[in-house]
Specification:
This protein has 383 residues and is α/β, with parallel strands linked by helices. The protein folds into two domains: 89 residues, Glucose Oxidase, domain 1 (3-Layer(bba) Sandwich); 263 residues, TIM Barrel (Alpha-Beta Barrel). It is 23% helix and 19% strand. Pfam families: Radical_SAM.
């Protein structure tokens, strides 16, 4: 669980801090978690806020407080949360996770058929930037990697560059991975503006779903998107930006998958990483399932040919969101455990599998939409 809710007191705008259950750990950067209001008002005033499961409002202090929270058990010492006037307690950073991210905006200029987080047409940038400006100085300096996602982060405009600059200022050793559709970079000035920041730790993950404009544009539901994305990729290459190509595998993208691999090698040889990704059954996907769903077993021939073609030319290739039992052994070396820990599950059918700890598992939202050939494996991976 990444969020919970209670009733807010003395909160008019978002406040961000590290949670603690230790009353002696008082500071303005810490939010005290408590079941009852046993701490003295004078001592509590040294904390930035109080989070409580108590059902009644505290009457002895006037600092930001969220009471009546449904549960706070999911929060670990040092996790960073934001509180707002609605009583929301949103986890912004988890100290024991390597899969933390910043939500730049929920707006998007595409409307992909399989979008896992459908866009919302509202100006959320001031609210989210307020949170990020408070959050980034609190994140531990040894954070190994941080994601930036949306919506479409580049719709922040100048705030996009501010956000990346803040990451660079406060977390200079942290790898940054930004998910973007790449379309805004068709404006050469926008790509050059990013190049001026000189962020070698930044990787842009950009989707390309077909080698033909009509199919890509249909999948992302945005006329002209293919041309904008390809021009953006070349503009980014001109400023030496690190790039990852992301390909979601489904009924529409699979038929031209091998042709897309050839297109990438011939036209985008500068990309650092190519990922082939399994479908996530959430967001828009359930509404478009008849257009999208194909048993992964049924596209293994195309996937094998595409991956081996790119790998033969020494391009770095990965397979995300797939299970080892449905992948040909020749593809096991490319499989990665990529599903975020908070939504990663394994099925009952996986019990007894000797390769479970090496397997990518499933999205918690998969339901019955998984391969009909899921079965435990009783052998070791090919070295």
């Amino acid at each position: 669980m990444l969020r919970t809710r209670g009733k807010a007191l003395h909160i008019t705008s978002p406040v961000v801090g590290k949670v603690t259950r230790d009353p002696s750990n008082a500071s303005s950067q810490h939010f005290l978690i408590t079941g009852e209001y046993a701490t003295s008002p004078a001592h509590v005033s040294a904390f930035g806020a109080v989070l409580s499961t108590a059902l009644e409002a505290p009457s002895r202090w006037a600092i930001p407080t969220v009471y009546g929270a449904l549960s706070l058990d999911h929060l670990q010492e040092g996790d960073i949360v934001s509180l707002d006037a609605s009583g929301s307690i949103n986890t912004q950073y988890r100290v024991h996770s390597t899969q933390n991210f910043l939500l730049a905006t929920e707006r998007c200029n595409s409307n992909c058929l399989m979008c896992s987080q459908p866009p919302k047409d509202r100006d959320d940038v001031p609210y989210l930037m307020d949170i990020h400006r408070q959050l980034l100085p609190l994140i531990p300096k040894d954070c190994p990697e941080l994601g930036v996602t949306g919506g479409e982060p580049t719709l922040l405009g100048e705030n996009f560059f501010e956000l990346l600059s803040l990451c660079d200022e406060h977390l200079p050793e942290t790898e940054l991975h930004c998910l973007t559709n790449g379309r805004t970079f068709a404006l050469r000035s926008f790509a050059e503006r990013l190049g001026e920041l000189a962020l070698p730790q930044l990787m842009l993950g950009i989707p390309l779903y077909a080698d033909h404009y009509h199919l890509h544009d249909y999948i992302v539901q945005a006329p002209g998107a293919f041309d904008q994305t390809v021009r953006g990729l070349h503009n980014l290459a001109n400023v030496n930006q690190r790039i990852e190509i992301r390909i979601v595998l489904h009924k529409l993208s699979v038929p031209r998958l091998v042709k897309l691999a050839h297109f990438i090698y011939k036209n985008l040889p500068f990309v650092e990483h190519v990922t082939f990704m399994g479908l996530e059954n959430t967001g828009y996907t359930p509404h478009n399932i008849d257009k999208l769903w194909i048993d992964p077993v049924d596209y293994m021939e195309e996937l094998l040919e595409a991956v081996e073609f790119l790998a033969a030319f020494r391009m770095h290739v990965s397979i995300y969101n797939h299970q080892l039992c449905i992948l040909p052994p020749a593809l096991w070396q490319f499989s990665r455990q990529s599903i975020s820990d908070w939504k990663n599950i394994y099925l009952d059918a996986c019990q007894g599998c000797t390769l479970k700890t090496a397997c990518g598992g499933f999205f918690a939202s998969c339901g019955s939409r998984h391969s009909r050939f899921i079965a435990p494996l009783l052998e070791s991976p090919v070295s």
